[in-house]
Design a protein that fits this description.
- The chain has no helices and 6 strands.
- The termini are far apart.
- It has a single domain, classed as Single Sheet (N-terminal domain of TfIIb), CATH 2.20.25.
- The protein is mainly β.
- The chain has a 3-stranded antiparallel β-sheet, with no helix packed on it. Strands 3-4-5 form a 3-stranded antiparallel β-sheet, with no helix packed on it.
- The chain binds zinc ion (ZN).
Length: about 70
């Protein structure tokens, strides 16, 4: 399985972040520790997956969500 689109963000801590779907440009909020896969609300692309620690991201981080 080629899963190279996923990458673990570095030194991100535990917080809410805004991520942007690379397929459709939709932005949505997720937490950096998740227990289930995060999918894009618009196009259903997989944006993040749980790893037991910091999530694996297949989306771009736009910023923090306060
Ligand atoms: Zn999308």
């Amino acid at each position: 399985m080629a899963e190279s689109r996923f990458a673990k963000p570095k030194s991100i801590g535990n917080k809410f972040i805004r991520i942007k779907c690379r397929d459709c440009g939709n932005e949505q909020v997720t937490y950096t520790k998740i227990s289930s896969v995060v999918v894009c609300h618009i196009c259903n692309a997989t944006l993040a997956r749980p790893t037991g620690g910091t999530l694996d991201l297949a989306a771009d981080i736009v910023g923090d969500q306060q």
